[in-house]
Amino acid sequence: MILEFKLNGTNKRIEVSPQKRLIDILREDFKMTGTKEGCGEGECGACTVIVNGKAVHSCLVLALTLTGKEVITIEGLEKNGELSIIQKAFIEEIAVQCGYCTTGMIMSTKALLLNNPNPTEEEIKVALSGNICRCSGYVQIIRAVKRSASEMRGGQND
């Protein structure tokens, strides 16, 4: 079956089998390996991407359901070789430990800030609740999300 959708701002057309998942086409067909598969059951959040402005676990999404939709992956955040504000904040706040959960955390943060540019700490925790950090870096991760939000607003309302 033919799937047509937008991936990181570019229109894509690909033939996929009905059982193929979003994570599979990203990693295998488009060679975008920034999205990680941890559990394959939607529990860990390592595979989080954004579909039409919402964070989703790509291991649970059948590729064919993406017809006409827009998908953003970690690779779609950098512009002209420059890391995004969120990516920089995660580095600067040392919110990266082993790194396996990082792309999912960053994508959940991006989805949150797309819809809520000034989240409370509780709203941040809820937005990240679908992501697990096995290295216990939550203090730094929450700090990175707060920093990202502040910088994206131009440092206002801090």
What is the strand and helix layout of this fold?
Layout: E1 2-7, E2 10-15, H1 22-29, E3 48-51, E4 54-57, E5 70-72, H2 85-92, H3 102-115, H4 121-127, H5 138-152
Parallel strand pairs: 1-5
Antiparallel strand pairs: 1-2, 3-4, 3-5
Helix pairs in contact: 2-5, 3-5
Q: What do the pLDDT scores average to?
A: 95
Estimated helix fraction: 25-40%
Major sheet size, sense and barrel closure: 5 strands, mixed
Ends apart, CA distance between termini: 49 Å
Backbone CA Rg: 15 Å
**Which ranges are low-confidence, i.e. pLDDT below 50, for 5 or more consecutive residues?**
none
DSSP, total strands: 5
The quaternary structure here is single chain
Q: Which shape, going by the Cα principal axes?
A: globular
Give the topology string: H per helix, E per strand.
EEHEEEHHHH
> In which order are the strands of the major sheet placed?
2-1-5-3-4
- The amount of beta strand, in percent, is 5-15%
Q: Helix count, per DSSP?
A: 5
* Structural category: alpha+beta
Please tell me about this protein's structure.
The protein is an alpha+beta fold. It contains 5 helices and 5 strands, in the order ββαβββαααα. It has helices spanning 22-29, 85-92, 102-115, 121-127, 138-152, and strands at residues 2-7, 10-15, 48-51, 54-57, 70-72. Strands 2-1-5-3-4 form a 5-stranded mixed sheet, with helices on one face. Strand 3 and strand 4 (54-57) form a beta hairpin. Helix 2 runs antiparallel to helix 5 and helix 3 (102-115) packs parallel to helix 5. It starts with a strand and ends in a 6-residue tail after the last helix.
